[in-house]
Amino acid sequence: MSVDATTAPVSTASVSPAPANDAVNHPSHYTRFSVEIIEVTSQLSFCLGNAVKYIARAGAKDDSKEVEDLRKARFYLARELDDFRQCRAVATAPVGVLAKSEILREEIGGDRGILVHGICLAAASSGLVIGQSLISIIELLDEQLAELGYVDAATGR
User: Fold this and answer.
1) How far apart are CA 74 and CA 156, in angstroms?
2) Tens of pLDDT along the chain (157 residues)?
3) Are 49 and 36 a contacting pair, CB within 8 Å?
4) CA-to-CA distance for 42 and 86, rounded, in angstroms?
5) 3-state SS track over 119-131
6) CA torsion through residues 98, 99, 104, 109, sign
7) CA 85 vs CA 26, 64, 73, 138, 147: distances in Å
8) Within 13 A of 42's CA, how many CA atoms are on the CB side?
9) pTM here?
10) Cα–Cα distance between 103 and 113 in angstroms, integer?
11) What separation in angstroms does the CA of 30 have from each of 1, 41, 59, 121?
12) CA nearest 141: which of 75, 61, 45, 92?
């Protein structure tokens, strides 16, 4: 029996722990909470995972790119909402992700913590709840961007 990259078992048990502030494996802007961001994002769809990533790191990786990170999060949320509206497959997250997102909600705090947890709640939902949840999350993110002085030239918001 031959083993290739698609069938070989992968184990992280033998990987030694990364040094503190390992910019490749454990960047500080993703490990500043008790739950590493990838523990949540890996259980979400690509778009929702990216939205969580950008919200969680906004201003932490590069404080001059806080608005840009939040705009990227909004882009991915809008893309997921579009997929939902077009009846394309929208992956749902396992309910287990909610416990981790609850920890992140508390540790990130404020509206951004609510956004991260809300994204995970939406991903664990089904049916029309997903669409309405994404709309509400995008609206809250728009409020965050407005508070930072960002106005979208296309919408005026």
Assistant:
1) 15
2) 444 444 444 444 444 444 566 766 666 666 778 888 888 888 998 999 999 999 999 988 888 999 999 999 999 999 999 988 887 666 667 777 888 999 999 999 999 999 999 999 888 887 778 888 999 999 999 999 999 999 887 777 6
3) no
4) 24
5) HHHHHCCCCHHHH
6) positive
7) 35, 34, 18, 15, 28
8) 7
9) 0.74
10) 9
11) 39, 11, 12, 20
12) 75
State the DSSP string of the chain. ----TTTS----TTSPPPPTTBTTTB-TTTSSSSS-HHHHHTTS-HHHHHHHHHHHHTTTS-GGGHHHHHHHHHHHHHHHHHHHHTT---PPPPTTHHHHHHHHHHHH-HHHHHHHHHHHHHHT--THHHHHHHHHHHHHHHHHHHHTT---TTT--
Give the amino acid at 33: F
Alpha carbon distance 105, 135 (integer Å): 19
